Amino acid sequence: MDSKLDMFEDVNTSPSLEGDMSIPGKRTTTATSASGVPEYNTLDEPIRETVLRDIRAVGIKFYHVLYPKEKSSLLRDWDLWGPLVLCTFMATILQGSSTADSMSDNGPEFAQVFVIVWIGAAVVTLNSKLLGGNISFFQSVCVLGYCLTPVAISLIVCRVILLATQTRLLFFLRFVTTTIGFAWATYASFVFLGQSQPPHRKPLAVYPIFLFFFIISWLVLSHN
Amino acid sequence: METPMADDLLQFRDYSGGAPAQINVNSPTHGGSGGSGGGSAGSGGSVGGGGANAQRQRGDPLADLIYDMTSSAQGFSGAASSGGSQPQNSSLDGSAGGGGGGAKLSLFTIEYYQQFFNVDTYMVLERIANSMIPKRASGNYLRMNIGENPDLYGPFWITVTLIFSIAISGNIASYLQQATDAYKWHYNFHLVSYAATSIFLYANILPAVLWALFKYSLKPVDSADAVETDSASYMPSLLSLMCIYGYSLAIYIPVSILWVINISLLQWLLVITAALLSGTVLIAVLTPALRNSQFSLFLIVGILSAHVVLAAGFLLYFFHNPTVPSLDPVAPTPAAPAAPAALKAVTQAVVNAVPGNQTH
After folding, report:
1. Which of A143, B12, B82, B226 has the most CB atoms within 10 Å of its CB?
2. Cα–Cα distance between A27 and A21 in angstroms, integer?
3. Which of residues 88-117 of A touch B (CB under 8 A)?
4. Number of domains into which chain B is organized
5. Is residue A59 in some structural domain?
6. Full residue range of the structural domain in which residue A127 is found
7. Hey, are the CB atoms on B114 and A222 less than 8 Å from each other?
8. Which pLDDT value is given to residue B237?
9. Is B244 inside a domain boundary?
10. Inside any domain, residue A67
11. How is this protein positioned relative to the membrane (chain B) (predicted)?
């Protein structure tokens, strides 16, 4: 009789535990979503939806870099996905070809291009902070990385031009393409980062950005 | 030391009610004067400045007069205790200390290094212009302009710009010298590494060596020399020397672009002109420090020689490719030649490839 009574009590306790667990989850979800409409917990959603949401956010940032009209959108929530993708893509293409004669291969290695992009972005960011800029480190690295998009596009165009037999006209086309990408990247980064400096120090902060994109564009143009 | 005590006693009599405040204000000042460090003098000046502001708020002319007398006494005691240039340094350090505040920042925060980047656009441009044009900077440029606010923005970014301008211009010069229809040109990325190594070594090690030589060869100071060189001798800090040397490299950025023009006479003319312009400015700016050294003549020759060697090294390594005579014997080709035209084509290709190897 005693053992039967204990088993009955255990069965009664189980539903109340489940009830306690569900209520905090709902409250957390309601508090987390600031848009007013209560969403279900994102932990339960399929992986595909999570990945698609992040991809859409990255795509929106690419769009804002190519069409730099809204200033604060890129700075509000920063991420390093775009810079990593762009950096890996450009370093893969820009590295010297190992199939040719090794004696004449003086192109940069993958690691050298990678280091130039990331260390360059870090140095430009540190310079901005040392001049008294009120921007966080990763926001600046994020902006500089995303602003490599025009340079990457010009790299793709140059690779397409290089498929044909090279003449002076085609070299001029590559030069113009690289110049457009460089000017566009510098302008976009200036739109995003220029306002974080005092007015009398803005040229001091903009010049390293100019130099950074100039060096990357030189690598793009020199690669043949 | 009797004069400050007299002033102190005088203040004590006049302001018996505020005696503790007055004593507290003046005691650190006298302690600072007794010490030998410029920082102590700066902090003393800062405290004095605070006292002056408090007194001026009351609007008491006698307090102003007493403050001026105290400052003069401090300056005189400072002159008696150390070198001739101490009083001006004291007053200047006082104003700088007042402006900067007394907070001591940790070495591992960004705010600590912001003091080395405390410049505006016009200051950087002014310093770049002063480093290129002789006779443009004033006689006390080293102490009044650089010594008060040495920055690392110009030295760092001028160095980085010079590294890449030399590497890019060197590749352009190589392209113009070698590229023909038969030879496929590849750019040499290693020029960036070589330029970076040589320029950073020059811009960092040479100021340190010069600073050590200034320290080592300091003339013994006696009263006559101290009085004579009161407004002329100055011991620059390591940061000031790095700042001056960094800006002195600015002239080589446009010169490296002009070195692409493959005319040997023009290239060497640019070497001499740039090295002499920049070296002359360096020596003119460093004259207050050189005058204080026993080996001033050797230091002058060393500074000019280092500048000429740097410019000549740039030209010879990055922009000058030796002409390959077309009559040089070439390695025999492994395959048998099919036709004389093909043989000539192969020979031409090999001859064109040789300068690339030598460059590498």
Report:
1. A143
2. 11
3. 96, 103-108, 112
4. 1
5. yes
6. 46-99+106-223
7. no
8. 83
9. yes
10. yes
11. Multi-pass membrane protein
* pLDDT tens, residue by residue, B10-29: 444 433 444 443 334 333 33
Mean pLDDT check: name the lowest of A28-37, B141-150, B170-179, B195-204.
A28-37
Picking from B181, B189, B354, B360 by the largest number of A CB atoms within 10 A of its own CB, the best residue to mutate is: B189
The answer for B124, left when phi > 0, alpha when psi is -120 to 50, beta otherwise, is: alpha
Query: Is residue B279 situated within a structural domain?
Result: yes
Nearest to B176 by CA among A171, A158, A180: A171
> Cα–Cα distance between B163 and B154 in angstroms, integer?
14
Structural domain of residue B262, as residue ranges? 105-220+235-319
CB-closest option in B110, B164, B171 to A215: B164
A132 to chain B, any CB pair closer than 8 A? The answer is yes
Contacts of A203 in chain B (CB under 8 A): 121
Asked if B110's CB is within 8 angstroms of A215's CB, the reply is no
Taking Cα atoms as reference points, which of A152, A154, A121, A156 lies closest to residue A139?
A121
**pLDDT tops 70 at residue B217:** yes
Is the Cβ pair A104, B153 closer than 8 Å?
A: no
Interface of B with A in 120-159 (CB under 8 A): 120-122, 124, 153, 156-157
* Calpha distance B105→B112 (Å, rounded): 6
Residue B125 lies in a domain: yes
Kindly state the average pLDDT of the residues A42-65. Answer: 81
Q: CA–CA separation, A117 vs A84, rounded Å?
A: 10
User: B268's torsion region: left (phi>0), alpha (psi -120 to 50) or beta?
Assistant: alpha
pLDDT score at A130? 85
Give the model confidence (pLDDT) of B63-72 as tens digits. Answer: 556 656 655 5
Confidence tier at B113 by pLDDT (50, 70, 90): confident
Identify from A94, A109, A174, A218 which residue to disrupt to test chain B contact, counting B C-beta atoms within 10 A and taking the largest count: A218
Domain count, chain A: 1
Q: Is A204 on the interface with B (CB under 8 A)?
A: yes
Does some domain include residue A8?
no
In a domain, B139, yes or no: yes
